[in-house]
Amino acid sequence: MDRGKKLYMSYCLTCHMQNGEGIPGTFPPLANADYLMEDAERSIGQIINGASGEMKVNGVVYNNVMPGFDMTDREIADVLNYIRNSWGNQGEVITEEQVHEVRDK
Length: 105
Ligand code: HEC
Description:
With about 100 residues, the protein is an alpha+beta fold.
């Protein structure tokens, strides 16, 4: 969690904000986000490759662009474990191996 938090602060905070609240209409929230919690593999892919196009998070449609990040498998697992277990979220642990498998696809 500590490692994930540091990564969040350096890579993600500028858009998704301190407490994962995002900016309504521009940057989707991560706190209590149905979209984040419903598919771990998709989240892994989004951090590797970025995300664009329409997505609906907590009932609000976003259509913006998030860049991909050049992070190691372990860093991606750490940051996801942090956001998936902060701000009211509770998710299963994501492993480096899972990240590796998504990257290989
Ligand atoms: C430059 C701004 C920016 C940065 C930096 C950024 N994101 Fe995003 N993020 C976005 C945008 C914009 C979207 C929505 C993309 C769309 O509309 O298709 C998004 C969507 C997401 C989603 C899916 C939607 C949701 O709310 O569940 C996740 C998960 C996510 N980002 C995680 C991260 C993580 C983790 C980091 C840091 C490694 C990060 N983002 C860094 C802008 C950013």
